[in-house]
Amino acid sequence: MAFEALDELLDEQLELPVAGRLYTVPAPSAEIGLRTQALINAAAVAADGGRADEQVLGDAAERDLYREVLGPAHDQMVADGVKWPALKHSAITAMVWIAQDKAAAERYWNAAGDPNRLAPNRAARRNRSGAASSTPSRGSTSGTSTRPAPARGKGKKGRKPH
């Protein structure tokens, strides 16, 4: 078995719908990808209370990172008058794509960047889908237990019954 051409295997662009238009964000150069990865790692260390690499953060501050990660889509968005929150969300989505993968970028995009919407708890999932089902799950029984109940008036050793 031979290796297939890598450019045929990788999906090397993002298609971001903003304000009724579809913007194409091409894959960044290796240099921009490596710098973005280093910046995200440094930010994660800082967020966890660690000491971030000041050189990495300083380098990122010197460059227009949003312009770099969005590529030509950045200038198109600015020319089209896209609002700042949409441009920022697009750029951070591209950064997630660069640092992780397309699936993570899609989750971030669809959650509008809200961490609470990225991994909702069970109650939130139920609320979104409507009322909880009253049908027992397949692993559920009818509510009976196969364990014998303790005799009335007798609790565990050394404990008074409730």
Instruction: For the largest sheet, list the strands in their spatial order.
Output: 1-2
Q: Spans of 5+ residues with little confidence (pLDDT < 50)?
A: 130-137
The H/E string reads HEEHHHHHHHH
Count of alpha/pi helices: 9
Q: Determine the N-to-C terminus distance.
A: 70 Å
Task: Report a brief summary of the structure.
The chain is 51% helix and 7% strand.
Overview of this protein structure:
17% of the residues are buried. This protein has 9 helices and 2 strands, in the order αββαααααααα. Helix 2 crosses helix 3 (54-62) and helix 6 (84-99) packs antiparallel against helix 7 (102-110). Mean pLDDT is 76; it is low at 130-137. Helix content is 51%, strand content 7%. The chain is globular, with a radius of gyration of 25 Å. It has 162 residues and is mainly alpha-helical. Strands 1-2 form a two-stranded antiparallel sheet. A hairpin with a 2-residue loop joins strand 1 (13-18) and strand 2.
Topology, element by element:
Blueprint: H1 6-9, E1 13-18, E2 21-26, H2 30-47, H3 54-62, H4 65-70, H5 72-79, H6 84-99, H7 102-110, H8 115-118, H9 122-129
Antiparallel strand pairs: 1-2
Helix pairs in contact: 2-3, 6-7
Descriptive labels:
162 residues; mainly alpha
